[in-house]
Amino acid sequence: MDGWAHIDMPGHAESLNVAMAGTLLAYEAAKGR
User: Fold this and answer.
1) Distances in whole angstroms, Cα of residue 18 to Cα of each of 1, 7, 26
2) What is the DSSP letter of 5?
3) pTM of the model
4) Residue 7 in contact with residue 13, Cβ under 8 Å?
5) Which residues fall within 8 angstroms of residue 16, CB to CB, at 6 or more apart?
6) How far apart are CA 17 and CA 14, in angstroms?
7) Among 3, 16, 25, 28, which residue's Cβ finds the most Cβ atoms within 10 Å?
């Protein structure tokens, strides 16, 4: 999974961060129930 850290695309990194944040929020919400 180390290959994922090598993605150097300015536009993609931002959308990836947004997706990751959404996933974390959903995970935390599900965990809190």
Assistant:
1) 20, 15, 12
2) G
3) 0.52
4) yes
5) 7
6) 5
7) 16
